[in-house]
JmjC domain-containing protein (Penicillium rubens), 362 residues
Amino acid sequence: MLKEILEEVGPNFAIGSIPDPSTLDSMSEKTRPLWLSSTSSIPQLLDSSQSWRGRVPLVRARNHTATAVRSESHLCVNYQGELDTVADPNVAISQLVDADPNKPVFLTGLRLPIIENLEFRVPLDVCKVAEPFYESNEQVNMTPKYSFVDLHIDYGTDGLATPIGDCRKIWLLYPPTTHNLRSMKVVDGQRLRLARLVHELEGCVVVETTSAHAIHIPAASLHATFTLQGGFLIAKDFTTSRSLTAFSELLATGLDESLLPEARAKCFEWLERCLEISLVHQKIKESVSAWLRAEEKLASWAATQRGWRVSVRRIWDQVSLPDSATICECDKQVSETSFATHFTSTHLSFLFSTCQLRHDRR
Ligand SMILES: [Zn+2]
């Protein structure tokens, strides 16, 4: 697969020098634990026919795009992997027929009405690893051949994506280990991220997708895509009870800081949902660790977001924290205080207190 990228897009991305690349069928011994310890799952390749409640859509979507492009409010035009406010979206449509290896233009964030009716969903097979919750933010990307989406992270959510019609893509995925996220932070907001990090990132998995596949992109994983056959890709976000660790590591590294205000608010909204799911599934220990890992970031967000302070406090209030015999990781718990008392008074103090909540309800 890497050879094909080299042949089609040339040596610009230093693909040939990826250390220890794995595929899903043959994963190196070092790579598997990097994924399992840092995020919700190893990337999974699923049968895409399970992700459509209705019939699998055909490339008829192309005709609808031309009309949709004129009325889309979420649409983004990308040139060479970066947002471009000047590029004409119609160029992307014409490149579906006549691809341009030097100047691929692609569209992201399309909300095609034709797709909404087909009911795209996360396949049941994902549940073998973890049940998907809060499936939302369905969108379509239109990528002509040669489109390259540079290394990025989708806020911290898990993602599901499947190509439509003849579209074929190769994905490079990396687990959100502390090492990888720190490297990503160094090039955050800059161009040529994959080319600059390709030598140092760990745990690379290379996956090819056609319309027969739906790919599960685990929470907060870094990914880049090469389109080798142009067409459409549909994607959506969700979270799982195993995603919170990755989410908190992302925040602890400060990777939310360069997001636009609207996207940053979404990121913390997703963290709230993810925490709720994690606690509902009684992953108390994991949730507490994740909370402590990102505590500073959460406190500074809470300071300006009243609604968030209230709703996150309500989530914590619904669980019974362990009491005797549990000692907080922070080492500041004094011996006569129970864990529950310590955690609430020390690590939840920047949220609304329970008595404030009661007062608030009046
Ligand atoms: Zn503590």
About this structure: Residues 247-361 form one domain. The radius of gyration is 22 Å. The chain has a mean pLDDT of 86.
